[in-house]
Amino acid sequence: MKKSLFLTIALLVSGNAFAATDHYVLRDGDYVRHLKVTKISDDYTVDADVDFESAADGAHCSEAISGKAKSTGENELLMKKHSESAAGFCELKIKLSPNGAKIEESKDCSTFTVGKCHFSSGDKELVKVK
Q: CA nearest 126: which of 6, 61, 47, 32?
């Protein structure tokens, strides 16, 4: 019993030793963007969400997307998510830096969002939460 408990704890600790999660946030006017990148060994998972709320006209939206990503170069990730309602793929290109991340989205990401919501950060960088 003690051996199996010790082995279970050892596996949990060793599994977490290879996992790393980074969070990035950008508040830009009426927009709040959040990005979570998790790396386990050489596998990446990306969770991105955007919230928009305009006090001026009462417009609002909140969207999220997540999936597996692959490394396409040094400090670059690509996540592709198939749309269930259309034939296209939403692609998020993520460029990581030591202090932040920039997100570019493909035109087909509009099937995952409504209104003024979009995942792309434009020229602005999401700040890495430390």
A: 32
